[in-house]
UniProtKB/TrEMBL annotation:
InterPro entries: HTH_MarR-typ (IPR000835), MarR/SlyA-like (IPR039422), Tscrpt_reg_MarR-type_CS (IPR023187), WH-like_DNA-bd_sf (IPR036388), WH_DNA-bd_sf (IPR036390). Signal peptide: none annotated. Residues 15-145 form the HTH marR-type domain. This is MarR family transcriptional regulator. The keyword Transcription applies. It comes from the Bacteria. It comes from Streptomyces edwardsiae. Pfam families: MarR (PF01047).
Amino acid sequence: MATPETATRRPDALTLEVVELIGSVVARYHEEYEEAAAGHALTGAQAKLLSLLSLEPLPMRKLAQRLKCEPSNVTGIVDRLESRGLVERRPDPGDRRVKLAAATPEGRRVARSLRESLNFAREPLAGLSVPERVALRDALRTMLT
């Protein structure tokens, strides 16, 4: 936990370099993700939502939370994906007042194709040994907890 003394201390050069490298990795990932989405005539937001729904059907409110956006935005995205036959709405078996959004078989196929087209991280990660990938994974997990 940061103390008043460490909170005001400037980051060292190594920390700044790591932060800059993480930013570069994130920017390259987003760029490739947007290109992959466009290859399927999807926006980045549509592709992210479809990817989430390919794992499991979700209520609109939960989709909005996971995408960190307003539920009204999710409704519009689901409408557009539904018009393309990639997503469908269905009643929640546990609460029929709630509608779930779910990927159709075609939506799952598109989501799988989208995931498979993301090559940015695969090639550089393949250049790392298994212990290096494990260390990287563990460091990232630590940063996120």
